[in-house]
Amino acid sequence: MQEPLFHKEEIPYFLEKTAVESEKDLFDQSEEMVLNQTALHLADEAWGSYPAQSVLDYFKAQVPSNPPSNMVEVGCGVGRMIGELAEDYPSAEAWGIDYSHQLLKRAKQLWVDGKTMHLDLSGKGLNSKLLLGKALNNLKFGLGKAEQLPFGDASQDLVMSSFLLDRLEEPEIALHEMFRVTKQGGQMMLVSPLNFRKPKLWQALYPPGKIRAILMQMGFSILDWEENFMLFEPLDGRGNGILWKCLALTCQKS
Questions:
Q1: 171-202 b/e with 16+ CB inside 10 Å = b?
Q2: Of 3.90.1170.20, 3.40.50.150, 3.40.50.300, 3.40.50.10150, which CATH number belongs to 6-253?
Q3: pLDDT tens across 30-77, in order?
Q4: Which helix (H) or strand (E) holds 142?
Q5: Are 209 and 203 in contact (CB under 8 A)?
Q6: How far is residue 81's CA from residue 209's CA, in Å, rounded to a whole number?
Q7: Distance separating alpha carbons of residues 197 and 168, to the nearest angstrom
Q8: What is the DSSP string of 166-197?
């Protein structure tokens, strides 16, 4: 694994993030954005359940019967997905990689440092919540990019990512990176609404069959493919939200 260039507030940085890049990062510049992600992924009681439970269940169901030794979530946010999988497989070395320092800081506080956190949700018309941290000793978080993962070739049993691919500038490079770090016989799992930001990405990666062809050309075998994986993302206590139509897939490195 690549050595970090430096640490910032105990978060290892595997690449330089310039001041300009930080200024463009909404999560680094907006406490509200961090609050939104924390509320969505960790304040289950506020919504009545975990809104992204179907994604987490999908990932857990796709894990092979042999326990993984290494796993990474690319675009881990506040750490809910990789945190639960690290709990399920305590002997595995688990990593969460994200490009936002603020999201990683919160993930580390809750999943590694075991800190308790008060979450003020009054701005969403919801009651405030107390989040209880967990101190997992097999989980680490680091700052990096999906297009430049800090892991060695064929080093990970499981590689997973959700709601990230269509946010990237170079999603095809990220797919190649995920393939590179996946072990022979290992699995890559991905969920994305494919809500691309640029016309060229729609042209390159839509309809979803184009992604399937890219993955197979790399050397992945498709184990599961669902083009109508639905997820409702709540926005406030009134019930407003976004209904996402996602692609969910699992593939194995041949």
A1: bbebbebbbbbbbeebbbbbbbbbebeeeebe
A2: 3.40.50.150
A3: 999 999 999 999 999 999 999 999 999 999 999 999 999 999 999 999
A4: strand 139-143
A5: no
A6: 26
A7: 9
A8: GG-S-HHHHHHHHHHHEEEEEEEEEEE----S
Nearest to 82 by CA among 65, 61, 97, 99: 97
Q: Tell whether the torsion through CA atoms of 103, 93, 132 and 127 is positive or negative.
A: positive
Q: CB–CB of 70/92 below 8 Å?
A: yes
Indicate the residue type of 238: R
- Residues 118-148 pLDDT 10s: 999 999 999 999 999 999 999 999 999 999 9
Element (H, E) at 136: none
Q: Which residues touch 234 (CB under 8 Å, ≥6 apart)?
A: 40, 47, 51, 240, 241
Q: Is the peptide bond before 207 cis (omega within 30 degrees of 0)?
A: yes
What does pTM read for this prediction? 0.97
